[in-house]
Amino acid sequence: MTKNDTLPATTKSEMHSPGKEERVEETPFEAVASICNVLVVGLFVLTFLAQNFVIPSGSMENTLLVGDHLVVDRITLAPPAKWMPLIYYREPKRGDVVVFLKPGNPDMFLVKRLIGVPGDHLHLAGGTVFINGVAQSQPHAQPTTSDNYRPYLDDFPSVPMTADFGATESWSVAMPQYVHDGDLVVPPGNYFMMGDNRHDSLDSRYWGFVPRANIVGRPLFNYWSFKTPENEYEETGLGNRLAWMAHVVLHFFPDTRWSRTFHVIH
User: Fold this and answer.
1) Least trusted range by pLDDT, from 28-37, 191-200, 244-253
2) Is 8's pLDDT higher than 90?
3) What pLDDT sits at residue 89?
């Protein structure tokens, strides 16, 4: 038996048989509707389930680097919703790297490591974090040395954090009421955050606690990391932005940190 190069002729009755599928052309309206459906689903995912963020500063080095582009899970740490009962939710816990809105500035997203949960008694001694009297092993944190030691940062809160050291005025006034027996006590519904780059991080030591409602989510992984100067994302003006875009295009391959692509955040 051999295979024929030509297909058998189709009879007129077969062409109009109810069991045969006929090709239907998509109308322009249907094409637009399909595109809109994709956009709506994408917008839903980016708004409610995941979102991308770029790291603008070195406050979380070496966990996160300037120029890291992150996919952020906006569901796991969100308040439980009855309309999505199958989604797994949990409360933020110590050690989580979290994205949140800066207290007092609802337009600014920050990313730090969660150090203290509600009810925790915490202090720093020589750069070591103590939670409820127990020294914490935090290998991700920048170590304290004789060169970078700062009393108001590394022996917090025994040395009062004031506006002279860079604290906000509101935190300078409010902080003493939360200090008991040398420990800072985290109030209900609030969290204490610190950057892993402990001596170059404006964090809860400077502006206080983060309310639960301010927590947006947690970074999952880097989808792209590009070598970026520390202050690049603070530059304004169309000329600066166009110059940076041109730089990215020209140096995409040599300046992309390929080893950090899909790097999971811990």
Assistant:
1) 28-37
2) no
3) 81
Residues 6+ apart with CB under 8 A from 258: none
Residue 185's H or E segment, with its range, is strand 183-185
82 is known as an active-site residue: no
The CA–CA distances, whole Å, from 210 to 114, 178, 199, 218 equal 10, 14, 20, 14
Distances (CA, A) of 157 to 102, 135, 151: 21, 15, 9
Residue 240, Cα to own-chain centre: how many angstroms? 25
52 has pLDDT over 60:
yes
SS3 227: coil
CATH number belonging to the domain at 52-260, selected among 3.40.50.410, 3.40.50.2300, 2.60.260.20, 2.10.109.10: 2.10.109.10
Of these residues, 59, 172, 201, 204, which one is catalytic? 59
Q: pTM (2 decimals)?
A: 0.80
**What are the tens digits of pLDDT across the range 119-163?**
999 999 999 999 999 999 999 999 999 999 999 999 999 998 999
Q: φ, ψ for residue 184 (rounded to 5)?
A: -90, 125
The one catalytic residue in 112, 172, 201, 225 is 112
Where is pLDDT greater, at 148 or 52?
148
b/e 138-177 (16+ beta carbons within 10 angstroms → b): beebbebeeeeeeebbbbbbeeebeeeeebbeebbeebee
59 catalytic per annotation: yes
